[in-house]
Amino acid sequence: MKITLAQQSNLENIDYDNLPFGVNFTDHMLVCHFENGAWQEPEIRPFGNLNATFALHALHYGQAAFEGMKAYRNQEGEVALFRPERNWERLNKSAERLLMPQVPHEVFIDGLKKLIEIDQAWVPQDEVKSLYIRPYLFSSSEFIAARPSERYTFAIICSPVGPYYAGAVKVKIEDVFTRAASGGIGFTKAAGNYGGAFYPTAKAIEEGYNQVIWTDHANHELIEESGTMNIMLRIGDKMITPPLTDRILAGITRDSIVTLLREWGHDVEERPIKVAEVVEAARNGELKEAFGMGTAAVVSVIQQIGFKGERFDIPTPEDGIASKIRKGLNDIRLGRVEDTHNWMVKVK
Ligand SMILES: *Cc1c(COP(=O)(O)O)cnc(C)c1O
Fold first, then answer.
1. Are 124 and 130 in contact (CB under 8 A)?
2. For the chain, what is the mean pLDDT?
3. Does the pLDDT at position 94 exceed 90?
4. What residues have CB less than 8 Å from 106, skipping those under 6 apart?
5. Is 38 helix (H, G, I), strand (E, B) or coil?
6. Same structural domain for residues 202 and 76?
7. Is the same domain home to 220 and 244?
8. Are 93 and 122 part of one and the same domain?
9. Which InterPro entries match (predicted)?
10. In the chain, how many domains are there?
11. pLDDT exceeds cutoff 70 at 165
12. Quick check: CB of 179 below 6 Å from ligand 1?
């Protein structure tokens, strides 16, 4: 691995008490190119500009996918990643579906560990702040013809972040637009999935919501995801989340939460959930809690669900499952309890 260190750190210019999500970047990044059918030597170098012409393939045809993960500093001051192998595996699933090359373990994982070790001073020790990590892969040939790229670029950039959402959110059950269809790319973190979601989300925001709950492409009858998060509903004494299909992103937070809830003795069902069932439960008070699950916000409590113009308030109990699970994950990440699943991977 080639390493070029920054002349000067930008860390002292960052106000950690006022961290907007994803706008400040650490001193270094990792870059690795795939060309002539092979991965080249990865390089860690100062964060900086892309060197490309406007013919860059990814900009035209969207052969691009990303990951999102975080590094935490535990109470001993050690820096560790949360389940990084899962992100590596998932990026390669996205890559396969988008006909991009598989990123080798030594490029993704070894490169990531080295990068975070170099920029470790940027990782805060905090309940709500952490270092957000963005590995991504994109087509980097420079031609405009609708065929697969020949060159690809893998990169990792990092951004110190505070909480993603300010508080509990209001969500609209989407009954017109679709995020993902069967046979499509909803299960990947393909860049275009997010570009396509901005318009429906903006419509929901105009109506006074923060996000949409995506429903199935065929009839808009099934609950799928909440924005860019998986969704968990507490109906009666059951925790319910939709099963993983090719329309749903297999969240690592979702998997971790389902694992913890089951260990704690909760009844967790992974099954199709009808919009009608949720509306009915909300109407009769059986919908006790609802929350999104994802790396950025970890747990995002839902305080209101809207459906066809009707709005239902959902309880947001302070001692509810959402806060219990948030604390449970934080305890593992900050080293306050034993990491029995070996989810934390130290950077050195
Ligand atoms: C990234 C993402 C998630 C959450 O995945 P995590 O691994 O938990 O961060 C859920 N849904 C969508 C659509 C996503 O892009």
1. yes
2. 97
3. yes
4. none
5. strand
6. no
7. yes
8. yes
9. Aminotrans_IV, Aminotransferase-like, B_amino_transII, BCAT-like_C, BCAT-like_N, BCAT_family
10. 2
11. no
12. no
Residue 174: domain span = 169-316
Does residue 338 lie within any of the structural domains? no
287: helix, strand or coil: strand
Which candidate, 204, 200, 194, places its Cα nearest to that of 229? 194
In this predicted structure, what is the pLDDT of residue 348? 84
Distance 87 CA to ligand 1 centre (A): 10
If you measure from the C-alpha of residue 143 to the centroid of ligand 1, how many angstroms do you get, rounded to a whole number? 31
For 246-291, the pLDDT digits (tens) are 999 999 999 999 999 999 999 999 999 999 999 999 999 999 999 9
The answer to the question of residue 331 being in a domain is: no
CA angle at residue 17 from 14 to 19, to 5 degrees?
A: 60
Please indicate, yes or no, whether residues 218 and 157 belong to a single structural domain of this protein: no
Alpha carbon distance 177, 8 (integer Å): 47
Separation CA 199–CA 197 (nearest Å): 6
Of the CA atoms within 13 Å of residue 111, those in its CB half-sphere come to 30
Same domain for 186 and 296, yes or no, is: yes
Distance CA 329, CA 251 (A): 14
Residue 6 sits in the same domain as residue 94:
yes
* Integer CA distances (angstroms), 34 to 70, 101, 145, 170, 227, in order: 25, 8, 19, 43, 32
In this prediction, residue 127 carries a pLDDT of 85
Same domain, 155 and 222: no
Residue of 264, 263, 266, 265 whose CA lies nearest to 241: 266
Residues 204 and 97 occupy one common structural domain: no
The answer to whether residue 342 is domain-embedded is no
Number of DSSP helices (H) and strands (E) in the chain, helices first: 9, 19
Ligand 1 atom with least separation from CA of 67: 1
